[in-house]
Amino acid sequence: MSRTLLITGASRGIGAEIALQAARADFDICINYANNQEQAEAVASQIRNAGARAMIYQADMAKEAEIVAMFEAVDKELGPLHGLINNAGITGKFCRVDELDHATAQRVMDVNIVGCMMTMREAVKRMSTTHGGKGGVIVNISSVAARLGSPGEYVHYAASKGAVDAMTIGLAKEVAKEGIRVNAILPGIVDTDIHANSGKPNRFAERGALMPMGRGGHPEEIANAVMWLLDDKNTFTNGACIPVSGGV
Ligand code: NAP
How many helices (H) does the chain have, and how many strands (E)? Predict the structure, then answer.
């Protein structure tokens, strides 16, 4: 029987690849996006072609009301939630801390931290056995930046991902007896638009070459790890923050 999965930021990059792999694993999927309706619809079409149900939903992860409305729409259109992938994330601009403006710092924290916390709240309210749910899975997409600190690039982003790891560990313990597993994947550098959109189009090639494997990663390599965490056979992995980073 298919199960409902909500993936934030699934119109492109890592989130889109998770959506495609999850559809092949018999999940019905809500593809959340911020702006790119056309790309979200393209991912939804591929999912429907694979035989799963898909809906798209525009919601800014920095806005609580939009997050709540999105979960209500998923309840109506796809039915009881089984899983949440917190993938939407932004780096903000590349800069040192002494060049950082408040608006950038605030936006990164609002999307990456508060948004993640609010989606987890809504998911727990639906999936926890304490609330009458049937349990489920949460996977947060963090970053190895949380461990490296990203000096000279975006300490603000690294800090936001450190918070994602902390909330993964805390929530995992909080709901461990309520049928929900909560884990995080910490990607290393991955080939997506995120670098160009933040102002460094060559970053993947340049930084990737300096990595232990001599290359960066690809979205499917991150999605593979997410699928492992989503698997029902994976009953004892909880509160884990797992680097998928080619050895970084
Ligand atoms: P990406 O290619 O830039 O795609 C970002 C996705 O998130 C898009 O679907 C975008 O929607 C959506 N999004 C952005 N801001 C949003 C908001 N405020 N509300 C809702 N959706 C929003 O990013 P990516 O590289 O796949 O990254 C995905 C996750 O992996 C992020 O959390 C990122 O921090 C993490 N990560 C990435 C790398 C890397 O090297 N790529 C490394 C480590 C961790 P639109 O298409 O509508 O804009």
Answer: 10, 7
